[in-house]
Design goal:
8 helices, Rna Polymerase Sigma Factor, Chain: A, 0% strand, Arc Repressor Mutant, subunit A, mainly alpha
């Protein structure tokens, strides 16, 4: 199907056409999975969250009004799924810490050498910076689309993206210097 996203959405809303929704999934699943993988740094969790995001999108497709792009609307749903998952993980981690208090981790950290990759660099960013850098650079969303997807003001999005980009540049510059 070569129809624009908006036509496919209208078809799904009007007829619950599974082929039309399947085409939307096919078009956007790589973007959604890549965005979530960068955000949560766990491929299996990202795949689960992407699946949840597409289920939620199917359930809520009637709420897509076409004021923004379908891609940004879908990224907004994926971002919400990420946030819900992060809250659950933090709650679980706090519970596990209480259970394991007093137990020391005896495994020594692994020496990773001078290997530099984007995922490690992204891990150095604050969650908001990482999320917005991924949305804007990896997923190709504009700052306005990222603001729409996250519900953050446009100026805040721009600030987080600029700070994140500057931190990434410093990280890679420092890694280059250390490797020399």
């Amino acid at each position: 199907m070569m129809a624009p996203d908006e036509e496919l959405v209208a078809l799904v809303v009007a007829t619950k056409n599974p082929a039309a929704f399947g085409e939307l999934v096919r078009r956007h699943q790589g973007l959604v999975r890549a965005m979530l993988q960068r955000m949560c740094r766990n491929h299996a969790l990202a795949d689960d969250l992407a699946q949840d995001a597409f289920i939620r999108a199917y359930e809520k497709i009637g709420s897509f009004k076409g004021t923004g792009t379908f891609k940004s609307w879908l990224c907004s749903i994926a971002y919400t799924e990420f946030l819900k998952s992060a809250r659950k993980r933090k709650s679980t981690e706090r519970a596990m810490e209480k259970l394991q208090s007093g137990i020391e981790d005896t495994e020594a950290p692994r020496d990773m050498g001078n290997v530099v990759d984007l995922d490690r660099a992204l891990a150095t960013l604050k969650e908001e910076e990482r999320t917005l850098v991924v949305m804007c650079y990896s997923c190709g969303l504009s700052h306005s689309e990222a603001a729409e997807a996250t519900g953050m003001p446009l100026g805040t999005v721009k600030s987080h993206v600029n700070r994140g980009r500057a931190k990434l540049q410093a990280y890679f510059h420092e890694s280059e210097v250390m490797a020399s």
